[in-house]
Amino acid sequence: MRAYSGKPSSLLLVIFSALLNLVLVLPAAAQDTSLARIILPLRGETLRGSIAIQGSATSPQFARYQVIYAPEPALTDWVVINASDQPVPNGTLAVWNTRVIPDGKYAIKLQVFSNDGTAVEAVVRDITLANTTATPAVVTSTVNSSVTGTASLSGSTGSLLPSSLSNIKINVSDIPKAFLKGVTYTAYAFGALLAYLLLKKVVSFLLRRVLHKPIDYGH
Questions:
Q1: Residue 217 predicted with pLDDT over 90
Q2: Which residues of 71-95 are buried (b: 16+ CB within 10 A; e: fewer)?
Q3: 119 φ, ψ to 5°?
Q4: How far apart are the C-alpha atoms of 64 and 34, rounded to whole Å?
Q5: What is the pTM of this model?
Q6: Does some domain include residue 6?
Q7: CA angle 12-13-14, nearest 5°?
Q8: Which domain holds residue 54?
Q9: What does the pLDDT read at residue 149?
Q10: Which of 68-77, 87-96, 108-117, 147-156 has the lowest mean pLDDT?
Q11: In this structure, what are the phi and psi dihedrals at residue 42, rounded to the nearest 5 degrees?
């Protein structure tokens, strides 16, 4: 750019040079708008199941993009998760089924290719897959009973009985024994009653003999 010398012709030359530089700079800046960005998942995350990879893949001369992964730390054997010839300004780039992949550390890479042969990329590293180490959900049965076992009166989500009764357990196999005990105790009670009545008669008989009172056999 030439310095202004104070003459009108020099001023016009300065303005022309500035406009020419602006025209040359703007197209170059416009060409540098290709975008490859992964928003999710984040670095250091632990993943299980099917994962939606979110981000952006755009370019003024967009040709295609692809999402690939490789095991850490080598990052040599890249495998394609998804590829498309449609740009994604902001959305789902791929759905990654991690169930079929061995657990371990992996990296995800997004590559955006343009028609002019250029490419931009984004990489997310230190992603852990842990499908086989997931803790299974524990399902508690509400009723646990069998003919020879025990029956619990309390459930997994709460008891229908007061807390003092919710822990009562009934052993079905003990019912015949309890019945026989009840019959035995009833027989003992009747036997004791009969022995008492008989003893009362004997004592009454002896007292009458000792006191020389006539014995009334009718009573």
A1: no
A2: beeeeeeeeebeeeeeebeeeebbe
A3: -150, 145
A4: 12
A5: 0.50
A6: no
A7: 90
A8: 32-129
A9: 45
A10: 147-156
A11: -95, 160
- With contact defined as beta carbons under 8 Å apart, do 134 and 103 qualify? no
Q: Is-contact 49 95, C-beta < 8 A?
A: no
DSSP string of 3-61, one letter each residue: PP-SSHHHHHHHHHHHHHHHHHHHHHHHH---EEEEEESPTT-EE-SEEEEEEEEE-TT
* Predicted confidence band of residue 133 (pLDDT cuts 50, 70, 90): confident
CB atoms within 10 A of CB 69: 22
CATH number at residue 78: 2.60.40.10
Positive or negative: CA dihedral 73, 74, 75, 77: negative
| 37 lies in the same domain as 106 | yes
What is the helix (H) or strand (E) element at residue 123, kind and residue range? strand 119-129
d(CA 54, CA 186): 80
b/e burial code for range 103-121 (CB count within 10 A of at least 16 → b): eeebbbbbbbbbeeeeebe
- Binning the chain into helix, strand and coil, the percentages to the nearest 5 are 30, 35, 35
Cα(215)–Cα(168) distance, integer angstroms: 59
The number of residues making up the chain comes to: 219
User: What 3-state class would DSSP assign to 82?
Assistant: strand
- By C-alpha distance, which of 125, 120, 128 is closest to 108? 125
